[in-house]
Design brief:
This protein has 437 residues and is an alpha/beta fold. The chain has 15 helices and 15 strands. It has an eight-stranded mixed β-sheet with strand order 3-2-1-4-5-6-7-8, sandwiched between helices. The longest helix has 32 residues, at 212-243. The structure holds nicotinamide-adenine-dinucleotide.
């Protein structure tokens, strides 16, 4: 039997050993899902603290409960490790390492390069390698493949290579790993087929595309679509405010059109790893081929200004109330970049806090998902959301609309609130002290 048939057979009869490289928001759920289905899975991560937590049966990701990790540990088909030697024991390797931006807003694929080097050192014939880290089109073919080929093994005979972007949406109760259709594009049809066969063990719908480049850029189109529409609606919200129109009402009205409109909502700014970073991967690649992505650039610039706009709105409201801004006390409610997650990466709350502090304002924050945070040398701890704390504030800014928050209590005990998420309206709470973004 050739390596393709052997791999297929192993995937079918669940004797395939799977290693997930990088156990973060993306890698850990995938690793655990394959375990649940009965595969032997190694979770490889070079973060010793994360590995220790998993060994101790503790989750560090909101979407995975500690209960889940404990259950998997009992089943004994999951091993979390820092030892790259497990790559040699694996039939399938799934790469989920970070792909951040450098300071100059250019792609940083150093984690992908490191992971490729580790794989190259441990490769043996008969392996399927799938990359899930979001990246610019061409990374799999131009960067990963040449590194793997240095092993002397041949693509399509000894090993198979595909790219499959992850679409997981942390904190989303409706869509999780298994019911979000998955895209996969291989170096060749065989690579795509093997990848489709693998993922169809755990995911309801798997869609093949013709190349790794098509799969890579699909993810970038999805997040570019979001950054551009968020930029548009944020700009529209500022205009509506100047015109004295309630932007939220307008979006609701437009959303009654059954075709040709999809609602996007204004907010305190974009955050997380994906929306601020992914489109920059595309614009970087575009520049390499002499093309300017004007839409992305304008949207990114517009969105970057929003945290400062929120602060300016807050300051103007305080000034109108004849409050000495430098003596004002402001409470930020919600620090995570979106509701019901603990992810602080690129969170607009950080920019808002920094900007308020620069103006001499005394800032505190509350977020049960984020017990403490650090902005450069400023360290802060989340305050308990008591009636007393709310009453002491001159101003409250709701930055993240976590589900656990008691909005009635916030509305009933705060002097002034800037609601950047329209969350009070959604909870049917009215009050003259509530100002919408
Ligand atoms: N977080 C999301 O919602 C999301 C959604 C879709 C796609 N993605 C993409 O998925 C990828 C992973 O994102 P994430 O949020 O899971 O990142 P993360 O930072 O939460 O996790 C990545 C893990 O990889 C580990 N790692 C780094 N280099 C390694 C190496 N050489 N060997 C072993 N482990 C290594 C890190 O220690 C870390 O634990 C990124 O490309 C991201 O853009 C993320």
């Amino acid at each position: 039997m050739n390596t393709y048939s052997v791999l297929r057979k192993k995937i079918r009869d669940k004797s395939a050993v799977i290693t997930v490289v990088g156990l973060g928001y993306v890698g850990l759920p995938i690793a655990l899902e394959f375990c649940k289905k009965g595969y032997k899975v190694f979770g490889l991560d070079n973060n010793t603290r994360r590995i220790k937590k998993l060994k101790d049966g503790i989750s560090y990701i909101d979407d995975i409960s500690t209960e889940d990790v404990k259950k998997i540990n009992k089943k004994k088909n999951f091993s979390a490790t820092t030892n790259a030697g497990v790559l040699k024991l694996s039939d399938v390797i799934i790469v989920c390492v970070p792909t951040p931006l450098r300071k100059i807003k250019e792609p940083d694929i150093s984690y992908i390069i490191d992971a490729s080097r580790s794989m190259r050192k441990q490769m043996r014939p008969g392996q399927l390698i799938i990359v899930e880290s979001t990246t610019y089109p061409g990374t799999t073919r131009e960067v990963i493949l040449p590194e793997l080929e240095k092993s002397g093994l041949r693509l399509g005979e000894d090993f198979y290579l595909a790219f499959s972007p992850e679409r997981i949406d942390p904190g989303n109760p409706k869509y999780s790993l298994t019911n979000i259709p998955k895209i996969i594009g291989g170096m060749d049809e065989k690579d795509t087929e093997l990848g489709k066969f693998l993922y169809s063990r755990i995911i309801d719908k798997v869609v093949g595309v013709s190349s790794t480049e098509a799969a890579e850029v699909t993810k970038l189109l999805e997040n570019t679509f979001r950054i551009v529409n968020i930029g548009l609606i944020n700009e529209f919200a500022i205009l509506c405010n100047k015109l004295g129109i309630d932007v939220w009402e307008v979006i609701r009205a437009a959303d009654t059109k059954p075709f040709g409109f999809m609602p996007f909502y204004p907010g305190p700014g974009i955050g997380g790893h994906c929306i601020p970073a992914d489109p920059m991967y595309l614009s970087w690649k575009a520049r390499k081929v002499g093309f300017e992505t004007k839409m992305i650039d304008i949207a990114a610039k517009t969105n970057r200004k929003i945290p400062n706009y929120v602060v300016k709105r807050a300051v103007n409201i305080l000034k109108k109330g004849k409050k000495d801004v430098r003596r004002a006390k402001v409470l930020i409610i919600g620090a995570a970049y979106k509701k019901d997650v603990n992810d602080l990466r690129e969170s607009p709350a950080l920019d808002i806090i920094k900007d308020l502090m620069k103006r001499g304002i005394k800032v505190q924050y509350h977020d049960n998902h984020v017990p403490y945070l650090k902005i450069h040398d400023i360290k802060m701890r989340s305050r308990k959301l008591t009636v007393e704390l709310l009453k002491k504030q001159d101003f409250v800014i709701v930055v993240t609309d976590h589900s656990y928050l008691d909005y009635k209590k916030i509305a009933g005990n705060s002097k002034l609130i800037l609601d950047t998420r329209n969350v009070f309206w959604k909870n049917k709470i009215k009050g003259e002290n509530i100002i919408k973004l």
